[in-house]
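Hey L., structure's done. Input below.
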Amino acid sequence: MDYYDPEVRAQLALYVHAMSSLCMKGQMAFSLAKNMQAVFENKRRLQSALELWEIENSDLLKAELQWLFETGVRKEFEDCQMLLSGLSDTERSGYLQSLPPGEAHTGKLHVAAYYLTRLPVKGIAAFDYSWCVYLCCAGYRRGYLSEEDQWRIVAMCVRHVRIAYASWKDYIIGFAAGADFHQASSSLDHAKRYKDFFVKLLTAQESPLGQVNLR
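Output:
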């Protein structure tokens, strides 16, 4: 993909808006999602996103982007699912009940168990790729990353996402699972709280997801 080509960059920008939109939170999530250009012009909001991932400078940003792209939250999720898939239903239930309540690892194992047979093949990679793209573009606008590096990273993420997911619906399922796993939310708080938001992203005419296809 020639990300130096202005037409290619214009197409990549549509993917940036679509993928980053899932990272929006709060009661105004969809209002933000349908106007991602304004989000990327809001320095305070971009700074908050970077601070959420404890990114304070260029070196930390580059390390975080590399981790999200190459390893991400998905590695720990896959490890949890591998452990659980080797158990029978009875063994799995007993194992989960034996775990100490209130600990992050316990919450993550419960999320991994719930999604054991409910995810697309590439699992929660959508969570890693969405945050990688959002933080990449936020970092560029805060002066932590060159424009060339921004488009290079975006192009790599988009290429992997288009191979990994057949539809935005599958992508959202993977993202929601990843968000709950990252938050160690055994009660699936993120998926429940943002269910209506995700539906709007899939169905609303002004949704950025409707501006570009994965396949």
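The mean pLDDT is 96. The longest helix spans residues 147-164.

-- N.
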